[in-house]
Amino acid sequence: MTTAIISGLATGSIYALIAIGYNITYLSAGALNFAQANLVVLGAFLTAWCYQHGWAAYAIYPAVGVAVAVIAMLEERLAIRPLRNRGSHSELVTTLGAATIITGTIIVIWGSDPIEVTSFGANSPFSILGGRAQPIDFILMGCAVGVAALLVLLVRRTSFGIATLAQSEDADAASLRGIDVRRLSLYGFGLAGLLAGLMSPIVGNKTYAVASVSLLLAVKGFVALTFGGLGSIEGALIGGLCIGVIESLAARYVGADYRDIALFLVFAATLLVRPQGLFGKPHLRPV
Amino acid sequence: MNLLELLRRRAYLGWLVVAVVMVSLPQVGVTLTNLRQIVLICIMALAVSGLNLVYGFAGELTLGQAAVYAGGAYTTGYLASNGYNDLFVTLTASVVVGLVIGVVTGVPGLRMGGWMLAIMSFFLVILIPSVINIIGTPLGGFSGLTGIPRVKVLGHQLTDNGYYIAVVLVTLVWFVILRNVVRSRHGVALLTLKESPILASSLGMSPYAMKLKAYALSSIPAALAGSLFAYLDGFIAPESFGLSLSITLLAASILGGTVTIVGAIVGSAIIILGPGNNSTFQEYSLIAYGAFLVIGGVVFNDGIVGLVNKLWRRHVKRTPVEAAATAAVVDTTLDLGTIAGKRLVLRGVGKSFGGVAAVDDVDLVAEPGQVTALIGPNGSGKTTTLNLISGYYAADQGEIMLGDVSLRGRPVHRVSRAGVGRTFQTPMLPPELTVRQVVSAASFDRRRSSFVESALRLPRFFSTRRSDEEGARLLKTVGLSSVIDAQASSLALGTRRMVELVRAVAGGNGLILLDEVAAGLDEIELGELARIIIALRDAGATVVLVEHNFAFVSAIADRVCVLAEGSVLSEGTVAEVTSDPKVLSSYLGEGTGVTGTRVRDAIDVEVHS
Q1: Predicted TM-score (pTM) of this structure
Q2: Looking at this predicted complex, what is its ipTM?
């Protein structure tokens, strides 16, 4: 039981980090980014490449962070900005396209097999509270909570954050008040990319660098986002942790094949019973 | 036989010729390898056509076609391996399974639409391996289902050529069915819904029910495709139905053009014949498909078929859109027949938004055969009142009666079905539709034929076509016959308002709500508009008008209701209201000498000339 819960909290932290990334672009650009998980996975491959080429750890984090942020900003310029005022979630198709390009590129360069990301040396399991856990599990939880706390502060205390809230309420009104919504959108993607890049060595340590995992992370991150409530950072964190534990318990007590089915049911139930999620505002019609 | 009738038959002739040519290909010595390519194109085109229906026409992206396709393939594989190997049986069973899968995801996903539906349907694709593994041995688990026998039809085992012909025929029959649906008012209704659910519900469509129907219908071709695919190699495995299949189908849809039927075939053919045959390209296929999605989403929304259509229209047909941009009232008699107007009564209606009362205790009576105008300063609650009648807002208190039917608490589409038509401050006309089609979407619920009746062209379908002809007659009466086949959204503002007005009237609505219908019109257009509204009134309709142009109001209104800060300030004839000191001080201003004679003069001049 303890083992299942800890492992659920750890994978849940990954879902939470993806969901927080979705929220950043949702608040700042008014668009969800299907490629958020692909950016994390891309970062994991870059990290693995850096380790193989003998880079030092202190250089890898900023390098991967900046590289992924640049790619995310490039995505914004090519797949989001041209859509301004197009409406009707056309970014659904274009960011899915961006995600597909990233995955396709990864497969061409690195192939489809998993590559180990050795960012924390030996990951030896230890006993705790009658269960087994790995150090990386707790590092992931710490990261998710820390990132969520930082972003809550960023949104509430900085002019950038307040501008994103204004933008997400009404982009036209925000630009009339002198907020440069185009720059906000670009920076939002940059920030989400930076987060993806900085977290990718840690996430990759748990998941390995493998192209096929990005789809699972994208969908489950979205379930976390919906469960917690679109637009809410706290909701993304709690949503991620909850669904991580739910799928871990389902896999442990019902069967490994029921891991995804359990989440599918949670997702369907959320949409039917409380579509605005735990912390969402009901009037925020989804994108 | 008129030209329209002939063209319609010729379209069938075209499909028939295609069918004969395709079916005779094996006889003229086309090799099995090439026939296999055509089979693959047909199978993909089937799945893509469903995507076009949901994404291109209904405006909701689904990524779950691969799951429905897998459902069809496994149903057929299982049945064929277990002694029920007959194409009619396996196709039918696959369609049933496909419909179940489609509806199960559609019900929760479509409520919110957009990303929720896309992710929900994508999730379904992820579940395929787990579900197949849970079912276990009957479906072959992860390693796949092998030894699916060759297809039989009524006990006869088909050869490779026979299988090819079966695939081609199933595909062609489905495309004719789909074409029939899309070319009926259902296609128009779906495009209307895609443009705006607000507009669609005001025309009597239930957005959720419409989308669910389109979604369910789109499962049918995907299931057919899966069923035919299971027979292709006699082997299916979970990895055939993954992410890359969903992406490939979407790429084919966007490449061919999402708002077309033929586009599904064109897009599929390009993908099968191009990348499908080229092994070096295979490696880069995901990158290329991703690029299609980005480019397709950003620049060319209409795909290759849309592009060809545009070029065709520009260089070959040369439709005179420019000349028809404005229209004049030709028919001076303006006979709209009789309209059974109903009495509208609002009693003590109130609505607050977050503690602010937008409308407070409003009483209003609008009689049939009269024009009732709602006027008042900005923020006085005019449009809110209109929206309360339409059902966009639910009234907090009070009673809204149309005849002896209570409208309060009804959803918008059910208010519309009670006989309420309306226009919007900014005309809402879906960009893909012609004027004729826009009007045919009016009063969608009444005298309509169902999906099935339209698809199979059953008798009820033709009676709906007759009601479309009534719409055409109405357009002619108000002088819009010259623009009847022009793209509605490209017309001048005055003409667009006129089209919207006709749509609100068509289908025999007894109550017509007009929201600032005169805004932005010049004097001639105002005169024409006034004539039509007066003709509506004389025909017996109940007309309620929200308007700022007081000259216009005083020219045509029988009763005027002045709102201020959410409640009724004054009510009476134009003369009574204009002499009410409260109205003068709070809204019209004193000593301005508003008379409305210029608009009335404009009308008189036209009637007499």
Answers
A1: 0.85
A2: 0.89
